[in-house]
Automatic annotation (TrEMBL):
This is Anti-sigma factor antagonist. NCBIfam families: ant_ant_sig (TIGR00377). PROSITE patterns: STAS. Belongs to the anti-sigma-factor antagonist family. Residues 19-107 form the STAS domain.
Length: 107
């Protein structure tokens, strides 16, 4: 079973973005733990939180729901949530659900 690996925060300073590297599968079995890890991250984040998805091998609807929920929480705290480097399958899921228009992407 793959688990989500929320890597340690990478920050260069208070104006630099907070970057979290996710890996593994985001599904019904791992989404609860990911949600909690990301909520904890929000409390320490700079105004820009970037989720690097380059090592996410699978994401189902519960995983997408976590991303949307975290985005709402982030926005309420004045934090912008952005996604980076989704794999083709993840990009397709974001596009097909319309989330690509609501979750900003960064290079």
């Amino acid at each position: 079973m793959n688990v989500i690996d929320a890597a340690p925060l990478a920050r260069a300073g208070p104006s630099a973005p907070t970057i979290v590297h996710l890996s593994g599968e985001i599904d019904i079995f791992t989404s609860k733990a990911l949600r909690q890890q990301l909520l904890d991250t929000l409390s320490r984040s700079t105004p820009l939180l970037i989720l690097n998805l380059s090592r996410v091998s699978f994401c189902d609807a519960s995983g997408l729901a976590v991303l949307v929920g975290i985005q709402h929480r982030a926005r309420a705290q004045g934090i912008t949530l952005a996604l980076a480097a989704p794999r083709p399958d993840m990009s397709r899921n974001l596009y097909m659900t319309g989330l690509d228009r609501g979750l900003p992407m960064v290079a």
